[in-house]
Give the backbone structure.
Amino acid sequence: MAAAKDIIRYLRECYRENGSRGGLWNVFADSVSHRVFLKDSDFLATRPEAGDSHYLREAASETAAKQADLYQKEKDLIYASLFVLGWAERTGDRPEPICAPLFWYPATLHPEGLKQGTALRIDPDRRQLNVAVLEALGGDDFARRLESRIEPSLITEGCVGDQRRLESRIEPSLITEGCVG
């Protein structure tokens, strides 16, 4: 007979697996316990040569660190990039509002050596595609084509416009320059 600890671990892993397949549909949903919006361009995702960290001031970093620590087993700390805003069908019944990233990266917070804040770090090589959103925008075939055309080192503000022209199935109002940075 399995120990209670093993059963709980198994159920937690099942929950995490199910959650990762569902994707992030709305950053303003109740399931998102804390969010910080960064200003200016998305240099973490668009300019790998700029490094893999972004400084967060103490006010934002303190709350984010507490939330990340409190929910470390149930939720993931992520850095989201290239948002889709508008309406899309998720279940096939009717369109729903969407405010979701096309990409996200596992993130970590590192306060060491910083007096009034913390460093938000990502691993650019661990970028994940928000498959649930892509499928809602155009199905599995669309998601595979988009994923195959985007290389981690090629994500720039210019490539977004090129991708828009390549994939005419995306409604232009869903992806705007304002979403990029």
User: Anything to note?
Assistant: The beta strands are 53-57, 78-89, 95-110, 117-122, 128-129. Residues 4-22 form the longest helix (19 residues). Residues 90 and 136 are 5 Å apart (CA to CA).
